[in-house]
Amino acid sequence: MNDFLNSLLHWRSRFFRRNFILILLIASIPGMITGLAIYLFGVEKLEHQLRDTHQTQIRESAQNIDDQLSNLEESLTYWAFDPRFNSSLAQLDFKKEFQETRDIKKTLRTIKESHPFISKAELYLDLDVPILLGSNYEEVKDENLNQYYRSVVGQAKSISWNYSGSRSVEYESESPDKLAITQRIPGVGEAFGAIIVTIDESKLIKLLDAMAGFDGGGAILVRDNDEILLSSNSLASEAFITYVKQYVAQTGKSEGSFLLDWEKEKYSISFGVMDRIGDEWKFISIAPITAITAPIIFISKMILVISITILLVGILISWFVSSNIYSPVKKLLHTIPDNGAERGKDQDEFEFIKDNLSTLSRKSETLQKQLFIHQPELRRSFLSQLGKGFVDNYTEQELRNRMESYGWQLTDKQFQLVDLQITGVYESDKMNGNDESLITFSVFNIVEEYISDFFEQFTVINYHDMSVGIFIITPEEAHTRRSLHYFFDGVAAIINRILDLKVTLTISESVRQAKQIPQLFEEVNRGKRLRIFENRNQVIDLSDWLYKERDVNVFYPFETEKAVVQAVRRGQIEEAEQGIRHFIDELKEKDVQEIHIQTGVVQLFSMIQHEIFQSGIHPSELFKSRNMVEELSEIREVEWIVTWIRDEVVTPYVRILESRMDIESKQLVEKVMDYIDLHYMKDTSLEQCAELVNANPYMLSKAFKKVLNINYIEYLTNVRITKAKELLWNTDMKISEISEKVGYRESYFNRIFKKQVGVTASHYRKMKSSDE
Fold first, then answer.
1. What's the rounded Cα separation, in Å, for the pair 641 and 622?
2. Can you give the pTM of this predicted structure?
C-alpha cells in the first residue's frame, strides 16, 4: 500500500506521464468516445424529432378544437335572435303562460342538443324575482348566485366566455362544469337577461388529452390573464401545471415548443393561441418522451461503463510498471528540501533540481528585505493592540522582548505619546468634509517625514479620523518637551499653508515602563478634548494641565433649548437649525473648551430625542439602532454639529410627521368621497361632511386641495355632472327630472352643465341620438 502511495509522486515526471497517457488512449478512449457520441447526438436527435412530430399533431388538434368552439359561438349568436328571446320576456308571466314557458324550455333543450360540447343551456332573467329556466323553472333566491348571473348580464359585450370558478354557490350539485358562453338577450334599453350555455368539460378535456399523443401526457387551456380554464386529468400535479404555465409565459411568445425536465422526466411542450370572443386562450400540450429515449440512453451508458472499467484496469497496470522504472529519479528528488516549488508541466526533473537550489538562496534574501519593509506596519499593529488593552496579560519583560523583535531599541529609554488632531475643514477653501480620509493620509505623510528631523525612534499611527498619533522612544535623561514644541511650530505651519487647516497637538507625560504605555493612550484620548473649541493652532501639554483641579462654572442655555425643541415640534427645520447654532454660540461665550461644549450639545440632542419619543415615534424607528450619542461626540467642528443634527435627526423626524399627516388627510377625503357618491342628490355642504368625519371645514377643504388638487365644490360638481350625463345618454327622463335627480334646480342645472361640458343638456342628448 505504501509503495502505491509513493508511486503517486511519479505523475510529475514528463516521461512517466507521456507513456502512461499513450497506453490509456490506445486501450479505452475509443469506447468512451463511442458511448458519448451515442448519448449526446443520438438521444438529442430523437428528442427533436419527437418534438417536431408532437408540434405538428398539436396544430391539427388545436385547429379542431378552435373550429368547434367557433361553431358554438356562431350557433349561440343565431339562437339568440330567436323571436322568443326579446324584451317582451320582462313582462311575461311564466307561471300563467305555461305554454310559452314550455316553448322556451324546448328551445333551450334544442340549443343543448345542437352541439356536442354543450352540457346545458339556461335562460336567466333579472326581474323583480330573478328566474332561471333550463331543464326546470326556478326562482333564484340565493343572493350569491344572483350576483354571479347579474355580472354575466351586465358585461360590456353581448356575447362572451365566462369562467365561473369564483362562483360561491352551485345551483346544480351534480354538474361540475364551470366554463360557459353567455349571450345577452337582444333588445333596447338596459340588459335584463342572458342565455347561458355551459360547456361539457369532460368532452373538451378528451380533445385536450388527444393533443399530447403520448401516454401520460395532457394539455391545459389558459386565459390571457394566466387563469387556468381546463387541464387534463392525467396531469395530476398542480405544481407541474403551474411551473409549465409560468415557463411558457416567460418565453414571451404566442406559440412555440421546447423540451422541459421535471422530476427526472423529460417532456415535449408545445403551445399556441386561440382567439375567442373578447378573450384570448392559450393552449399548452405536454407529452412525456423519456420512456421512448430510455433504451438508447441505457445502451450508451453501458458502453461508457465498460469503457471506464477498461480504463481503470489500464491505469493500475501502467502505474505499477512505470513506478519501477521511475524509482531512481524519485530518490534523487527526495533529497531536495520542500520549499513549496512545483515543477513545470514540461520541465525536466534534473533542471527542476537545479532551479530549486537557486531559488532557496534567493528566497532567503527576499525574506530579509520584506521583514525590513513591513516592520513599520508591524509596529503600528502592535501599538494598536497596546492601546486597546489586548496585551495586558504580558509581563514587563515579555512586552520589551516583543517590542525589541520589531526593531525598537529599549535599553535606558522612556516612552511618550503625542496626538495631532486636524480641525477647520468646514472653514477651509481647499478641503471639504468628504476628503476626511485623504486629509488624514496627507497629514500622516507630512508628520512621518517631518518628525525624523527631531527624533530617532518614532512610529506614526494613522487613526483615520482626522488625527494621527506619534509614539516616541527617547533616552531617559532627554528633555523632549522643547523638541516637540519646535516640531509643532514647523508641522503646523506646513499644514496651515498646504492644506489650509488647523492643528491641535496633545502631549502625554513620559513613562519608563512598557506596561504603562496603554495608559498613555487613555490619557491622550481624554486630554485632547480639553482643546479650546475654536479653529486655531493649539498645544495641550498634559504634564502642565491640571484640569482635574480647575473650577468649572456650569452654564446651560435653557431658553434657547426650549426654542429649538419648539421648532422641532412644529416641523420647522430652518428655525431649528438657527436655534441650534445660537445654542452653541451661547455655550462658547461662557466656556470654549470642547469637553464642556460637547456635553451641552449631547444634552440638547437628548431633549430633541425626548420630544420625538413623546410624539409617538420611537427613536429606534428613526435612527435604525445607530449610536447617535457616540457619533455626535466624535464631531469636532460647530458647523458639522449643526449640519449633523439637522440632517440626521430633525429632517428625518419632520419627514415622518409629514407622511403621517398625508395619510390622515387621504383617509378623511376618502370617507367624504364615499359619502358624496351615495348622497350627491341631496343638499350636501362642506360643513356637514366635516361634521361627519369629525374635522373642521377649513382642514377638510385643505385636505381636498392637497389630495385631489381640486376643492370640495369642484369634486361635488364633477360627481353630479357625471351622473347627469349618464342619465341623459341612457334614459328618456326629462331634463327637469334629471336636474332634481342629481341635486340641482333646473335653471341652475342648465348653466352649470353648459359651463362644465361646453354644451347644454338638451344638445348633449341630441349628440347621443346623432351618434346612433
1. 18
2. 0.38
